Amino acid sequence: MASRTNEIQKQIQDDWANREYIEVITSSIKKISDFLNGFDLSCRSRIASLNEKLTALERRIEYIEARVTMGAIACIYSNSSKLHISLLL
Q: Which of 22, 37, 78, 89 could form a disulfide with 71 if both were Cys (CB 3.0 to 4.6 A apart)?
């Protein structure tokens, strides 16, 4: 009878040890998951910010290209039998 009681107590102790181990693993997985979610949010935020800056730069480039194209209208005029081409910028 005493050995049966000791066996049951041993099983209970092993069960509690396993539960504690599972709790540590679960807690660690949750911490890793929280970190990864925070990292994902941070990266998305930074990428969105970079995307806004890139879009602004693209718009400026398009504007400058349009200005150059419009300003590159060659004005041809003659002056003392010489042909001059000037770019209006």
A: 89
